[in-house]
Amino acid sequence: MVRKLQIAVSGLGRMGARHALHFLERTPRAELVGAFDPNPAARAWGKQHLEPYGVTIYDSYEAMLAHPGLEAVVVAGSTTEHAPQTIRAIEADKHVLCEKPLSTSVEISRSVLDAANKKPHLKVLCGFSRRFDASYRAAFDQIDSGALGRPTIIRSQTCDKHRDDDYFINYSKHSGGIFVDANVHDIDLTLWFFGQDSIVKSVSAVGVVARTKGLEQYGDVDNGVGVVEFWGGKIAYYFGSRMMAAGQHDETEVIGTHGKLSINGTPAQNLVEIHEPAGVRREIGQTYYDRFEQAFVKESNEFTEAVLDDKKLPFQLSGAVQAVKIGCALQEALRSGKKIEFDQMGDRIMDEKARL
Amino acid sequence: MVRKLQIAVSGLGRMGARHALHFLERTPRAELVGAFDPNPAARAWGKQHLEPYGVTIYDSYEAMLAHPGLEAVVVAGSTTEHAPQTIRAIEADKHVLCEKPLSTSVEISRSVLDAANKKPHLKVLCGFSRRFDASYRAAFDQIDSGALGRPTIIRSQTCDKHRDDDYFINYSKHSGGIFVDANVHDIDLTLWFFGQDSIVKSVSAVGVVARTKGLEQYGDVDNGVGVVEFWGGKIAYYFGSRMMAAGQHDETEVIGTHGKLSINGTPAQNLVEIHEPAGVRREIGQTYYDRFEQAFVKESNEFTEAVLDDKKLPFQLSGAVQAVKIGCALQEALRSGKKIEFDQMGDRIMDEKARL
Amino acid sequence: MVRKLQIAVSGLGRMGARHALHFLERTPRAELVGAFDPNPAARAWGKQHLEPYGVTIYDSYEAMLAHPGLEAVVVAGSTTEHAPQTIRAIEADKHVLCEKPLSTSVEISRSVLDAANKKPHLKVLCGFSRRFDASYRAAFDQIDSGALGRPTIIRSQTCDKHRDDDYFINYSKHSGGIFVDANVHDIDLTLWFFGQDSIVKSVSAVGVVARTKGLEQYGDVDNGVGVVEFWGGKIAYYFGSRMMAAGQHDETEVIGTHGKLSINGTPAQNLVEIHEPAGVRREIGQTYYDRFEQAFVKESNEFTEAVLDDKKLPFQLSGAVQAVKIGCALQEALRSGKKIEFDQMGDRIMDEKARL
Amino acid sequence: MVRKLQIAVSGLGRMGARHALHFLERTPRAELVGAFDPNPAARAWGKQHLEPYGVTIYDSYEAMLAHPGLEAVVVAGSTTEHAPQTIRAIEADKHVLCEKPLSTSVEISRSVLDAANKKPHLKVLCGFSRRFDASYRAAFDQIDSGALGRPTIIRSQTCDKHRDDDYFINYSKHSGGIFVDANVHDIDLTLWFFGQDSIVKSVSAVGVVARTKGLEQYGDVDNGVGVVEFWGGKIAYYFGSRMMAAGQHDETEVIGTHGKLSINGTPAQNLVEIHEPAGVRREIGQTYYDRFEQAFVKESNEFTEAVLDDKKLPFQLSGAVQAVKIGCALQEALRSGKKIEFDQMGDRIMDEKARL
């Protein structure tokens, strides 16, 4: 019989439960052996949906890490736990797939990277799901082929459907804000398409609370526009929104010196168009999972393959730190209304007043 | 001062009034000098909208033909008058732009051609407006360049928006039926794209009255599907409908041995898309004039130019006879439920029973 | 531990191998236990890709059927084996998922239905993959909701990418021809959208061999147009092609009295559009599997669920017989050039000559 | 006979020649009586194309203004002449349609407004062609109907096709830069959709010279991103480019609290899509005139109608000054790298250093 990766999932919330099912059901070379969540309700879900398939449900992260034969861990609990649990798993010599962002703090993110760098034989992946999406990969291949010339401008947006409840407000308490939580994907795509070694030159941002009153108490907005300059003549600009009427609309555009490409310029949930008296209508996906389900499954499978076959991961962990750094700078610029500048080494340039 | 084509319009109904305005306002090298309509209400419209610009309004076609200096006539009245008025204008030595179809009878259509052939110095054009549409012309250029290989299959549809009144029923009395009236455009496009000399091999059709009850009394339908084989391995198939919910949708597809093209596969009235809770919606044009307005204006201008500069018309009158022949055969096949076959000369093959 | 459906796959050709992998890797509630193929090369593939996961590879269909604990069989070998193997599996009291078509013969198809009817406790499913496609299901829901009014016209096409080799010619020997092999999907969709009990009134078809010379020896074409009337004022018309330049393009349109919908009107392989000097370009899927992969996986899972939970299959086997009947009639009409007519019971009306 | 507006055109360059032809040929209620250009080559064009139709060609603007019976003037020469010629025409008591921008200087723009305010009986229109475009008007109607809720975010871009020659470099000398010349349209649209009385709060911009080396000498870029905050919680962000590979791509998106709309999200030159081995391709317009030709013609006609019938112009001249003000601020922010801030009266807030 073939060897299967022995993996466990920490966190059985919305996304953690999906990760668990992806490893249980849709990752043929992996075997889900354990799952942990501090929340009894989440564990009850696990007992119902995972335990019958031989998955042990833990109420202690440490106990889960000690599961006999465990090789790898998915860290998918609350954002504040991402870094400590990842570091702890690395120390326990486990491979890790950690949900994004590593942390809402640059320093803490960097500590995860430091821990990983000490154990180069371990695979430590930050779960930027869009990296596994077929369309973004086709886009990267085009860019990489030189078809667009030198990539110069990136426009990218992460736009959620409006919710009438207070989900976004509660979420905002710990999410780090719209640029750290949502547009971090767009920042990661930028590093992918412009090159992982791109060095940020300046960051500025503006935003408003237009519909989801209450976000302002956490220094957050429901609509934000951020602009990032990179040294070497490259610019990325982002839009994040929690206010879409029709559904989720994540879109990216890469403009090179000799061509351009767009990803998801005309969003659609499926291939149906309806002709009715009011015109022609199509539905669009409601959530990011509607858009990226296949990418998440691909992520599980490629992470598994990388561990089992000791293959290179599709991207380096250092990029995840860089993405948090830029996301945090955007959020700070949003709050202060000030442009933040960096020198050619990527180190922040303090303005005169700040230096005093 | 430059010379302008002295032209008059016969028929000030829906389409005739538009022709009059196109020549009055949007055909710089033409001068509209006269207009005729037997209907007092239509003449009243002419007196209000045309006369102030120096256009003489006539209550007799013959009188209009006698307008001093008149060089050309647009024949745009009722279908039954197309052929006699065109022939009369030719006899009076006028150039003619005649609305489609020449007639609902093949024989009468042919008599127009005969009349025109006797006066080769006159320009006689049948107003197949789609021939002047920028998209159809771009399509023809592609086909003509050989990019698609040998054109083999054409799918083409003329689909009107549903009307709650009895317009289509009254219209059906004299229109010759859906294939003669509406799909004659698709047939004409077929002759353009397959070649004017294509010879029909067989014709068959089916149809239903689904919503516009009353059409059946005139042997007509509100949804018809027709199939035409041409000698040399070419097939065209058509759909005609009076039942569209969203608006007018005329669409054509040409499939060659090495490529394909579509015209108007995703209809839209303008460039706006609206994202709302029910999805993403766009409006589409409501009438054929919404779709082909610019083509009609181009038609006026090119007809004028052909006469003034003695240039070749963009297509020959003989095709219009051929189009009526195929349209009438489709309508007959619809009524009889029988396939109609033609020999390689294009002459109809009578079945045994018919021969007896 | 949970119970998993014990299933085996007969036929490890192109599609059979996919079925095997779908049940092995992407159908959590099923366990692939056996696989059979008469061809040593196919078995070698199975030994490499399936055996390591505990799947027994058989060189005898009967031996596979005798696999201990086997509950269900996928019949995915050559078309001529579909019916005998399905019947044999039913006799051995196994549930069956049989690839389409049941047979290229109406009579043989009916014998499969008869066998299944004798064992109503067995689930016997004909693998019309489009029935499991998310877009077609969304379309059905719209139709079923009454949003389009009464469905009246269906246009549906199955168009393969051109191949330079002789694949289609060899395939044509046993496939039953383009209408039986390819458009049978469109016929099945018609029965779904018009209602499973729709009764065919007439069938006619035309076609040409435009590029894949050699098809004519098997009475087949590379481009075919078929028209089917149903009693009660409904019409379906189909296009089948083996000559697409850009890739696979399967498209369907349903026109009701009060609205219309299209499925896959603007095909695309992914969400990328490339702006380059020649214009804006997108790629489209190359094969039916590019288009329907997720539908096949859904099919495996729903079949498994229906067996394990004794749920109704999403559609009845009788429709598969009806689809073959219409497909064969279209192919016959293509060859004879004659329209075939049926009475209101769906029984064929013989013309006078044939009756003698 | 009806009265026709006696109008003359100053400037017969690329756009001026088009204005002249629009008034000569496509504005039925206007009569083009004169044209002026200081350049002999341009006058030669006028003598060939306009003079034969009775248009007097002038080599002096003053002489043209003195044309007997002249009522209105189109000012379409070089940008530096827009303001002085417009003011001179107003003084001579002529109605004026002036090409955008009024000036590249805010102060000079304001002086035009002052001149116009002194003669309220004159119609003075700044030629923001997009205001006359059918799609933008349909968008405005949607917004105005409240369908989107409160407009909150506008994204708008003006993107020209790359040119291999030094056109853009020479043009940049006097154009005022990309934000003043190109994105001024997007700014004007913003004022339309957010409301003419919107007050700017801050302006920032970044840009690069990626392909058209030489622009930097004029403080210009070939790719610029600008962000404008308005008091009251509204944000507009712009992209301007001279580097598109496929053609002109002007696109706008308006996001409201309850819905969104896009204009020209999927650009196309016509309705043709070509399926070829590399995929599905469509062409897009090459120039802004390909996109806005009908809008320019509409502009001529509505200006004419406003004068003849003493109707309100579709928008006020003051907006054109506001647009120049924002465009110039964006260009300054681009050059300085500094954010520019305004108080709630729209007056610029000087930073401490600048105040000293």
UniProtKB/TrEMBL annotation, chains A, B, C, D:
Query: GO CC terms on record?
Result: cytoplasm
Query: Which Pfam family is one of this chain's hits?
Result: GFO_IDH_MocA
Q: Gfo/Idh/MocA-like oxidoreductase N-terminal domain: which residues?
A: 6-120
Q: Where are the transmembrane segments?
A: none
Q: Which UniProt keywords apply?
A: Oxidoreductase
Q: What is this protein called?
A: Uncharacterized protein
Q: Which GO terms describe its biological process?
A: NADPH regeneration
Query: What lineage is on file?
Result: Eukaryota, Fungi, Dikarya, Ascomycota, Pezizomycotina
Which parts of the sequence belong to the GFO/IDH/MocA-like oxidoreductase domain? 136-261
- Tell me one GO molecular function of this protein: oxidoreductase activity
Q: Output the PANTHER family linked to this UniProt entry.
A: BINDING ROSSMANN FOLD OXIDOREDUCTASE, PUTATIVE (AFU_ORTHOLOGUE AFUA_2G10240)-RELATED, NAD(P)-BINDING ROSSMANN-FOLD SUPERFAMILY PROTEIN-RELATED
Q: Which InterPro entries match?
A: Gfo/Idh/MocA-like_OxRdtase_N, GFO_IDH_MocA-like_dom, NAD(P)-bd_dom_sf
Family of the protein in this entry: Belongs to the Gfo/Idh/MocA family.
Q: Which organism is it from?
A: Acrodontium crateriforme
* Residues forming coiled coils: none
